[in-house]
Amino acid sequence: MITPSWNPFIFSSLFGILILSIPCFSEKAPHYTFARDATSSPKVVFFDYIIIGGGTSGCALAATLSQSSNVLLLERGGLPYGNPNITNITGFASNLANTSPSSPAQLFISTDGVFNHRARVLGGGSAINAGFYTRASKAYVRRVGWDEKLVNESYEWVEKKVAFQPQIKQWQSAVRNGLLEVGVEPNNGFTFEHLYGTKIGGSIFDSQGHRHTAADLLEYADPTKISVLLYATVEQIMFKPGAGGRKPRANGVRFQDSKGNSHLAYLKEGSMNEVILSAGALGSPQMLMLSGIGPAEQLKVHGIYVLLDQPMVGMGMSDNPTNAVLVPSPKPVEVSLIQVVGITEFESYVEAASGSLELDWLRRIGHDFERIANQSMDPSVINPQLLQSPIQAGIILEKIAGPYSTGFLQLKNKDPSENPEVTFNYFKDPRDLQRCVQVITIWHYHGGCQVGKVVDRDFRVFGVDGLRVIDGSTLIDSPGTNPQATVMMLGRYMGQKILRERLAGAKN
Predict the structure, then answer these.
(1) DSSP result, 344-391
(2) Which listed residue (194, 263, 367, 444) is catalytic?
(3) Which end is more exposed in the chain, N or C (fewer Cβ atoms within 10 Å of the end residue's Cβ)?
(4) Structure confidence by residue, pLDDT tens digits, 130-152
(5) Tell me: the pLDDT tens digits for 203-258?
(6) b/e map 72-107, b = 16+ CB within 10 Å
(7) For residue 300, with 0-12 CB atoms within 10 Å meaning exposed, 13-18 middle and 19 or more buried, which class applies?
């Protein structure tokens, strides 16, 4: 089996109303007239909505809200376009191997010792992941209390821009046939739906192997009502003090551009205007804490003024453990990321990828590939040439649902550009250990601003006004086999709900 010290990098290597009939402005990516470097921004700007984080949820949310309101989207990274390691399927591993300070895939290591990545680019995780697109199960949607009709419409809105039927070649076909042979049935063919059995899911890579990210959803935006500032690192959410027993109200943010210049973005006057956090499972709880909302004792340690003692911020952090088996091949194997999945009745999901495993960069970071390969293969069939770069291989992955185990996030310092300290407690709950013997990450971490603990069912932050969190940090468990489709959907879904609320408020 593959050992934990190297596992993360094997995986990295391979792989109604007006609102419901809004027009498509179709300003094709990457020719956005509304996206620019934050250094060009005035010192002070005013908007109806300020969205922190241009990731999988933030792009969908910003595009939707721009249909009737002025929107500022702040992204700490740059555009995904023009970078072949992002846009082409063959650059997947190289993108993750980039550990430079400007990398779109910011490396972090949990206190559990597991290597992981955090997106730092417009489009968020959809710009660095393995591309699998699949919806949450209908049971999941009902359990969390979402409007099923609006959920389906929101998925369809996303799918028109970024989801494709993949071309299944030899390796993925073999995996599909093997799953069916061992009884992961029925054969559900190609579908976006989460169904028990074996299926071909969607992909954000098109037939030419070109990646389509959540940034493409900004093609739906009204270019006259949206501004996207790149390389804009938010330092703090600002609040107006509550008077007469009222809650503090978010009224803007302070952010820094790439040259270190400070800028202020304020909400325009209006009770419906809001700041919305979509900075992800690490960024959103981190930003709440930096803004004075979090466990009081932890904030005081870092000299942060306590606006609201909220001990649940940063709690409930989870990451789905994954088993992996490497299958070296003496012959070339097609490049494929996740396309086929087996969904079992006992909530274990089997996926696969394949391609040429480049070893030079693995050796540069000090991982002992030869030892791992020997442990992954039958010694009687080991070919020494297979241990020379590159190696052709397939990889089979098993992700466990949930998980049951949860951990926590804490600040390391007051620098918003640095990663917070994260503990996932992978096997704190023995049920997870029973389902998974050896672990790598599958990048499906979530939690930190969970519904019912930090935000309400409309994603409003408890204890303050004018502030919501809309991203994967609000999830109790990971939806379906892979969460990106649902997180993109959530941005669209909540954007529509917010616009409906705005419309209703204007009529009253």
Answers:
(1) -TTSEEEEEEEEEE--HHHHHTT--HHHHHHHHS-GGG--GGGGSSSE
(2) 444
(3) C
(4) 899 999 999 999 999 999 999 99
(5) 999 999 999 999 999 999 999 999 999 999 999 999 998 777 789 999 999 999 99
(6) bbbbbbbbbbebebbbbbebbbbbbbbeeeebbbbb
(7) exposed
